[in-house]
Design brief:
The chain is of the alpha+beta class. The protein contains 5 helices and 16 strands. The protein has helices at about 45-55, 155-165, 190-205, 220-230, 340-345; strands at about 5, 65, 85-95, 100-105, 110-115, 120-125, 130-135, 140-150, 170-175, 240-245, 255-260, 270-275, 290, 305-310, 325, 330-340. The strands form 4 sheets. The chain has a 5-stranded antiparallel beta sheet, with no helix packed on it. Strands 2-3-8-5-6 form a 5-stranded antiparallel beta sheet. A hairpin with a 4-residue loop joins strand 5 and strand 6. Helix 1 (about 45-55) runs parallel beside helix 4 and helix 3 (about 190-205) crosses helix 4 (about 220-230). The longest helix has 18 residues, at about 190-205. It is globular. The relative contact order is 0.19.
Amino acid sequence: MKKYILQFGIAFSILVTACQPKDKSSEDTASTADSTVSVTKDNYALVMTDLAMQKEFVQGADNTWNHHRKPMPLDAQPAPMMNRDTNYSFAILDGGGDVAITLPENDGRYMSLHVMNHDHVTLGVFYGPGRYVIPADKSSDFFYANVRMQIDASSPEDIQKVNDFQDLLKIEYLNGYQPQSFQVTNWNMDEFKEVHAHYVAIAQKEGVRGTMGTLDSPVSLEDKNRGVSIATGLLPDKDAVYLTESYNLDNSKAHKVTYQVPEMKDPNLGFYSITIYGDDQYLKTDQGSTISNTEIQLNADGKSFDLYYVPQDQFDQADFTNKLLMPTQPFWINFRVYMPSDAVVSGEYELAEIK
């Protein structure tokens, strides 16, 4: 059994300890058809963030929103352990001017705005409906905004409801500022692959706990590089905890586990979920792949719940309120806690054993 505790947001498989200057003509970031920009450990976090930003930019996130409308499709997973408990909306924004981002009123579900600078440092995480101003003197040349909204992947009605909320997101540049478009950088991909492989190997051994720095609480260059290598766009530890574990169970019968409900700083805004993956850490089925607190039926004590891991050939007939489908033998789970309490962040909360 392998067990890690991870904190992260969305990851990308594609493929500076300080913010870059706002001079978009800088020789360090300019590229031409016959030259590339060198990749070293010193700018690796910026490169990884830049590649992720490029991916969203070409899909339309050019100073406006690129909405991911559906739960993660099985045939389009960009990285291991993608989630199906939130929909994402990304915007790649010009940091040369103050920007206001408005999160709409919704039905009370989890909704967060994660603002991250070009060098993979969090400027801020904001929760709930409101108008949030991102000042130019805090942001980098370009940065990205990522809005997460909780979703029930099994409900077409809930998916549509979240899509409607996504359409209400707003971006405003203040004081008449006219934003420029993100400029794609031609990185030296041979150098990138070498540096990337180095940090992926470290992250696979050590995980990514404690690797997302903020403007007020930076992390070391090595920690930042470790985290960005497999978890580009991760939330700071205080905002999300992911507990992962692999199991090699008899796939001829269902297995029961009783989990304690994890504590959250604000149970009205935060939530928790469990997603199940194959032995390669990729989603394998639409059915029975995830379950969250909005669907989970608690035990009589109100502090715990029973969950059953069920073989695929028995899943439809299994009369369990809380169940996930075992896609392979072995399989992985990822228990996500958004807005975790200090006890969960510190590691006091542990996953229960499966019987």
